[in-house]
Amino acid sequence: MATAFLPSANNKNKNKNPSVVVWSCSHRLLPVESRNRGHNDIEKHISSSIRRTTPLSSSSSSSSFSSLPIQEEIRYIAGRRALLLHPPPPSSSTTTTNNNNPPLVILGGMAQSIASWEYHLPHLAKHRSVLIYETLGQGPPPPSEVCSVDGKELSLQHYYGNVSLERQGLDFWNVVKEAFFSPGCYYYEQQQQNQNNNNNNKISGSDEEGINNNNDNNNGMVMMVDVASFSFGARVAMAAASIEPNGIRRLHLTGVGAERDNFANVILASWKDMLGCSDSIDDDDNDNDEECDPTNHAKKCTARLRSFAWSVILATYSEEFLASVGSERVSTWVDGVCRYNTEEGLRAILVQTHGNDDGRGVVVGGKEDEEEEDPWSPAAMARRIRSSGAVKRCRIVVGSRDKMSHPTQALRLAEMLGGDDDDDDDDDGVTSEAGRCVLKVMEGCGHAVPMEAMRLWRGDVLGFLDE
């Protein structure tokens, strides 16, 4: 049983396992707005919570207005649909910017989009720049200038021809560098202003140093980010960390384990079947196999995609949570999955990144008895991250009722990332050595902890980043 591996929060026993804390989640405490809003409300809600980008020199703002985070327009950054937010500008009494923390990158789950994180973004961007982007395979069809090669538009099936975790990890750094560390971008200019005012070449006031990428002409700027990720996004974050060690300062992972158990594999097989992932599918069966068309995409939703959306929601949220919001509201979430995703993109993610979590990898040399480990399984990536010291600190959060990443598998992953702990824990259960990993279990939650327990999850992320 999982409880054998999950001591309570006040258990001070020292052992070789990562620290484990168990939270209690009461769905009755959910704010009414979180139960009664759908994905279509993102523009209205975010517009009331954050404001548009203004020049740094702007000083004609009321105190309440200037305290709101700054939002850039949703746009494509390094070919990925993204949203950038920044903390409020400095008050008139100071010349330094209010943005001394490393940037935070948010990576969502497979069938999520930027809209899925609307309630978290204003809070996360109060004291740091925040980037959320849709990985390759997520999101609506890209515009023709993105979905083209040599001026010729590709079908979605060809556009999503390579969405492997290795490709996603490389994409991560391309997006991060263009969003934060390129001359002319908002964050870069803020840091240059701080350097000019304070003669300070550090991003953060902490003693944790990042890496200097001399090939990027960043004038000594430290290239380091924090990451908060969920489910598929957590796997992408691990891929990014294993590709470029020491580029991620703190890594917050939710809903990911060392491997899937048999029940999770049954759910995964059903999703693949719903989206027609077998080799026998042809273009006549593929209703969405067409050129990129973001204008008309919102009007289309195949029965296959809609069934998949229902199944994903039923599998990733706890029964208690779904009962509390009701079928009418859940139906709007299904609409959101269909509106902000494509069948081709999700199918590509399932086929190319969700096949070898048992760690056995692929058949080598055509011989069934010769197999090697998949280098992009969570377990393999965790071992590379630990051996290279790629991440300063790591934390894993999982729901006690998670059907896709069982808490026992999350504990295994935390052990792989954390290694053998010394008996030198802090009072709050967080290990102090670099590279150590902490596991937190949200009692009563399913897989989608960031959506079921928004305040607690967000508080854990911010607390972890500020330790």
Name a few traits of the molecule.
eleven-stranded mixed β-sheet, 467 residues, 36% helix, disordered N terminus, globular, two-stranded antiparallel ribbon, alpha/beta, 14% strand
Q: Summarize this, please?
A:
The protein is 36% helix and 14% strand. The protein has 467 residues and is an alpha/beta fold.
Describe the structure.
By secondary structure, the chain is an alpha/beta fold. It has helices at 32-36, 42-49, 63-66, 121-124, 156-159, 165-180, 186-198, 232-243, 262-274, 294-297, 303-316, 319-325, 327-339, 343-353, 378-388, 407-418, 449-452, 454-466; strands at residues 20-24, 51-52, 70-71, 75-77, 80-86, 104-107, 130-133, 148-149, 152-153, 225-230, 248-254, 363-364, 367-371, 391-399, 437-443. The strands form three sheets. Strands 1, 2, 3, 4, 5, 6, 7, 10, 11, 14 and 15 form an eleven-stranded mixed sheet that branches. The longest helix is centred in the middle third of the chain and has 16 residues, at 165-180. The radius of gyration is 22 Å and the shape is globular.
Principal-axes geometry comes out as: globular
Q: Please count the beta strands (DSSP E, at least 2 residues each).
A: 15
- The proportion of residues in beta strands is 5-15%
Radius of gyration: 22 Å
